[in-house]
Amino acid sequence: MAIVRCPNCGQRMSSLAKTCPxxxxxxxxxxxxxxxxxxxxxxxxxxxxxxxTTYLALGLLVFGAIWWWGAPPQGxxxxxxxxxxxxxxxxxxxxxxxxxWLIWLRLPRNRPPPEQD
Length: 117
Ligand SMILES: [Zn+2]
What we know:
- There is one protein chain.
- By secondary structure, this protein is mostly helical.
- Helices cover 54% and strands 5% of the residues.
- The chain is built from 2 helices and 2 strands, in the order E-E-H-H.
- The radius of gyration is 21 Å and the shape is elongated.
- The two termini are 31 Å apart.
- The site of zinc ion has 8 residues, from loops.
């Protein structure tokens, strides 16, 4: 028996199990093509999440900048309002995490297997 990763959810499971105990995927009945499709879908879900993280971060950065500029007294005055003080650093960190995640996902060793026909 070996510990393998479920092709659908990526959790660890026994190689002898017929279904994944985490997501109930009938791993034992999957063809090579189905496994390939599940692995590609899983990779795409992660890539979508990483991209959505960067969009959320950009929204926070825009919100923080507008809030800073628009709050009285209008302009780029110090200290910035507390909402901008929170949104801007959180936006920078989230953007870095999202971009780093995307770069990591696109590394050759993390890419999904090529599509089979
Ligand atoms: Zn699973």
